[in-house]
Amino acid sequence: MSSTAARTQSQPELKRVIGPKLLLLFVIGDILGTGAYALTGQVAAEVGGAAWLPFLVAFAVATVTAFSYLELVTKYPQAAGAALYVHKAFGIHFVSFLVCFVVMSSGITSASAASRAFAANLVAGFGLDPGDGGLVLIAVAFMLLVMAVNFRGVSESVRLNVVLTLVELSGLLLVIMIGMWAIAGGDADFSRVVAFETPQDKSALLAVSTATSLAFFAMVGFEDSVNMAEETREPSRTFPRVLLTGLGITAVVYVLVSICAVAIVPIGQLAGNETPLVTVVQTAAPDFPISDLIPFISMFAVANTALINMMMASRLLYGMSRQGVLPSFLSAVHPFRRTPWIAIVFTTAISLALIAYVSLAPDSSVVAVLGGTTSLLLLSVFAVVNVTVLVLRRDPVAHQHFHAGPVLPVVGAVACAYLVLPWTSGRAGQQYEIAGILLVLGVALWALTRFGSRSVREAADAERH
């Protein structure tokens, strides 16, 4: 037995404290957030009043992929998610590393998008006008604050997660209620909901594909829930109904929010709007005092998204360093705070670089570019997971588990690949540039570690001989 395996077996198991209700709140809270609060306007810019359609398609693709995840998580009820499944299926360390690094990168791009959304909502909430440069500075300051909180150590208790989820959900339900009230009172144009408008350079299919690729940013927390398997009671029984129920609830919320938004606010005002829900509530109920709270609820929701994703990214980087697939300095733990401070600083530096890089292009939406890059990375992982479930069918286990059937994984793999490829998804080239830069960075770190450890071994062998 290897020393790594021996250490793993000597460690106690994680405490299984999460039941169905708490897991459901975790799933809902992880999916709600920046996607609804910041990207509704960007989606509307692609398809007009039919902004609800891309969200519906995105959830349909996610649900098909959820069946593959459910087979894998009930078959192998362990933390680590996609990287674990890929390693079991193919046994190639480099491929497993790439999947893990892509998941980590999606967390960084998601947090970077959330930082810009936070800045936009802060400006709207306080009625400021700092210009593009000021927004960038606020986003950078926010990420530094997230780094400080991450470094200090953040309680991840289930009680705190419940509170954060309820705040996020309450803000979206408030938008829906005010929107329905305006629609019922005749203060909205419901005909816009079915008004399908596409950019002149895109066909209807390509416009829907582009909008769906962006709407898939809402699935940023989908992978995270699988990592709770070792802390969930009876995961083989609990996960199927909870994950599918969570997807159903969040899909209804996203679709209703989109319908209310396009019915109340003209598409021209929504397109490119970085605070779309603030505009919706203030248009529907300009004299309603609660409308002043929406920017701050939005700030809270996207701040929660950013913090969770940066914690996930820094811990993944730390874990890969501990496993010897990334340079050892990334696994340094602060002696007093007991947090992976080098990994925290490193992931924050990447995030700040992304914010600066995207902000250099004045005509591009920072949230849309970074959100689209997040969905690009996630969809790539989902495509691999759908293939992995088919490969692992040859690896039977003793206990009963969920079965996705022979067709759905194939449909999921094809749909995810369709939304990844540049000639079918209609994505902006900048998204591929950012994803490529992140992958090159990951491969360079992996190669540095691999050849560095080989040199150390060769030097040690030379000394012994």
TrEMBL record:
Keyword Zinc assigned to the entry: answer is: no
Record localization: Cell membrane
Q: Tell me the membrane topology, using the record's own terms.
A: Multi-pass membrane protein
Alphabetical UniProt keywords: Cell membrane, Membrane, Transmembrane, Transmembrane helix
Q: TM spans, by residue?
A: 21-39, 51-70, 90-113, 133-151, 163-184, 204-222, 242-267, 293-318, 339-360, 366-392, 404-424, 430-448
Superkingdom is Bacteria
Identify this protein by name: APC family permease
